[in-house]
Amino acid sequence: MHSGGLELALVFLLAAVIAVPIFRRFGLGAVLGYLTAGVVLGPYGLRVVTEAERVLTAAEIGVVMLLFVIGLELSAARLRVMRKPVFVVGGLQVLLCGLALGGLAMVAGLSWQASLLIGLGLTLSSTAVGLQLLSERKELTTDHGRVAFGVLLFQDLAAIPLLAAIPLLGRAGAAEFGWDDVLKAVGAVLALVIGGRFVLRHVFRVVARAQMPEVFTGAALLTVLGSAWIMQIAGLSAGLGAFIAGVLLADSEFRHELEAQIDPFKGLLLGLFFIAVGMSIDLQRVLSEPWLITGLVVVLMVVKFAILYLIGRRPGGLDPRAALQLGGVLALGGEFAFVLFNEGVKSGLIDDPMRDRLAAAVGVSMALTPLLLIAISRLLASNPIRRKERKFDTLPEDGAPQVLIAGFGRFGQIVARLLVAQKIPFIGIEHSADQVDFVRRFGNPVYYGDPAKAELLRSAGAAHVKVFVVAIDGVEENLHTVSTIRRLYPEATVFARARDRRHAWELMDLGARALRETFYSSLRMGEKVLVELGLPEDVARDHAERFREHDQRLLRAQYLIRDDEDALLQSTQDARRELEELFNADFGEGVLGKIADATRNEENVLDEE
Q1: Can you give the pTM of this predicted structure?
Q2: Phi, psi (5° rounding) for residue 379?
Q3: Which of 70, 156, 351, 417 has a Cα-to-Cα distance from 555 of 20 to 30 A?
Q4: 166 and 117 in contact (C-beta within 8 Å)?
C-alpha cells in the first residue's frame, strides 16, 4: 500500500476497532487482537502495508510512553508498601526464569549474549494481559493478585536496564566499543536525573498556573519525547529516558494529571506498535515450523509456571491453590519481549528468523493464558476457596486511599484533618496549582488536576475508593464532578458540598448526599446567639437540634415539588407556621418569653440581694 498517511491511519484504526473487541469478547486480550490485525495487514498477510519496518520505528513512541507511565507509578511510598512481593518474589522470578530459559538457549548453541537476551526477554510476562485478566476475574485484591502485581512491577523495572544494555551487548565484541561509550551513557543519565529533578516540577508548576489544558498536554509530551531523545543521542534506549522522567515526577503533585494526559496517546501508539510487530512476523516461516513453535511455547510456559508456583509458595507465602493461579496468570510471555527482541535484531544479537519464532511463541502463549486460567478454575472448582475473615481495619494492606476529596480548599481541608486524625488514607485532587503547592508543604497527599476528568480519577485509584467527598466551591464544576463520579462508580458513596437548597436538590438528583456549606455553622451561631441572649445552653442546644430536624424534613419534602414555584412558596409558609407551633407547644411563649422570664428572675435576685 503506497497511500498517504491519512489512509494508513484509517486502516490501522479500523483494524483496532474490529480486532480488539472481537478478541476481548472471547477473553483473549487486546494485545493478541493487535498482533493478529498486524499479521493480517502486513507484508506476509494481505499486504495492505508492505514496509513494516518504517511503521515499527514510528510506533515505538508508544513503548516510550508506556515506560514513562510505569515510571510515574513507582513512588517511594508504593515501593515501600509492596517491597516483599516486588523485590523478593519478583526478583527471584526474574533471576530463576532468566537462568533457566537462558541456559536452555545456550544448550541450543546460541552465544551467551543472545542467550541472556532471550532468557530475560521470555522471563517477562505481559502486564497488559495479566492485569486485565485479574481485573476481569475480580482477583486484583486477592493474595495471588497482589503477588502477581508485585512480580509484574519488578519485571517492568528489570526491563529498563536490559533495554539500556542491549546496544552495549551488541557492540561488546566490536572494535569500536570503548569506555567512552560507557562514560557518554552515564553522563546522559546523570544529566537527565539532575536536570529533571531541579527543573521538571518547576516547569509544570508554571504551565499549570496558565490554566490551559492544551499547554499542559504539550508540556507532558515534550517531557516524554525530550527525555527519550537525550538517551537516544547517548546511544541508549529512548524508553530509558522516558522512564527516568516518570520516576522523577512520581512524587510530584502533577503525577496523576500527567498520567491522564499521556494515557490516551500511550494506548493508541502502543496498539499501533503491536500491530507493527504483527506485521513484521514472517507468517510463512512460522507455519513452516509448527512443531518448533509449539515446542518453544511448551518450554516457555512449563518452565515459568513451575518456577512461579515454587516462589509463590515460598517466599510468596501463598497456599497451593493461590500459587497455581499465580503461575497460570504469569506463565505467558510479555509485550516487552517484542521490544527487546526487536532491539536485539538492531544490535545484531539475534537474526530475523529467530525474532519471528520467539515473537510467535510469545503471541501464542498470550492466547493460551485465558484458556489455562479457565482450566485451573475448573480444577479448583470442586474445592471452593475459604477465605479467613478479617477484622475491620481503616488502613488497607496496600495503603490505598479509602477517601477521595475533590477540591482542597477550606471545606476539603477540614474533612482531611478529621481523616488524618483517624489515620484513614485519603487522596486529594485540586485544580489550583498554587493551592496544591501550598497544602503539599504540610504533607497532604494532594495532586493537581481536574477531578471531573474520568482519566484522572482512574489514574488516582478511584476504583478502590469507598467514599468521595466533592468539596468544590463552584456550582457547575461541583455538579460536573459529581455526575462523572456517579457515572463511573455508581456503587460508591458521594458526599457533596452544596451552596444552597437548589444546589442541594440538583445533587440529590445525581444520587449524592448533599451537605449545605453554611447550614451547620449558621445553626451553631444561632445557638450561641440564643445563649448570649439568656437562654440556658441545654435549651438552646435542643432548639437548634429541633430546627435542624425540621429543616431536613422540609428539604426532602420540597425536593419533590422543586419545579413548582407556587407550591414551594406555600410549603415555606406552612413550614414557618409548623415551626412556630412546634416551639410554642413545648415552651409556651417561645424563646423570647423564656429569655424574658430568665431576665426577670435575674432582676428579682438582684433586688433581693
Answers
A1: 0.62
A2: -65, -35
A3: 417
A4: yes
Query: Which value, in Å, is the radius of gyration of the alpha carbons in the chain?
Result: 31
DSSP secondary structure string for all residues of 382-396: TS---PPP----SS-
* DSSP-assigned beta bridge partners for residue 515: 497
**Angle 44-50-55 from CA coordinates, rounded to 5°:** 110
**Strand, coil or helix: 468:** strand
Q: What is the pLDDT of residues 55-88, one digit of tens each?
A: 766 777 877 887 788 778 766 566 666 677 778 8
Residue 398 pLDDT exceeds 60: no
Side chain identity at 260, as an amino acid letter? A
Whole-number Cα distances in Å, 385 to 146, 187, 321, 372, 380: 17, 53, 8, 19, 8
State CA 79 to chain mean position distance: 15
What distance in Å separates the CA atoms of residue 459 and residue 260, rounded to the nearest whole number?
6
Strands (E) across 321-462 are located at 403-406, 426-430, 446-448
Confidence of residue 585 (pLDDT cuts 50, 70, 90): low
* Confidence class for position 391, pLDDT limits 50, 70, 90: very low
Burial 248-261, CB ≥16 within 10 A → b, else e = bbbebbbbbbbbbb
Query: Helix 335-346 crosses helix 112-123 at what angle (to 10 degrees)?
Result: 160
3-state secondary structure of 250: coil
What whole-number percentage of the chain has pLDDT above 90? 8
Q: For the chain, how far is it from start to end, CA to CA, in angstroms?
A: 110
CB 418, CB 426: distance < 8 Å: no
Instruction: Considering only residues 406 and 17, tell me which one the structure prediction assigns the higher pLDDT.
Output: 406
Handedness of CA 470, 475, 477, 479 (dihedral sign): positive
Chain segment 220-241, per-residue pLDDT in tens: 888 888 888 888 787 666 777 8
Report the relative pairing of strands 467-470 and 403-406 from DSSP bridges.
parallel
Q: How far apart are CA 251 and CA 239, in angstroms?
A: 20
- Helix and strand numbers (H, E) in the chain are 27, 6
Q: Is 427 helix (H, G, I), strand (E, B) or coil?
A: strand
- Closest to 99 measured CA to CA, from 78, 81, 79, 120: 120
Q: Please state, in angstroms and rounded to a whole number, the distance separating the CA atoms of residues 519 and 320.
A: 56
Name residue 351's amino acid. Answer: D
CA–centroid distance for 522 within its chain:
40
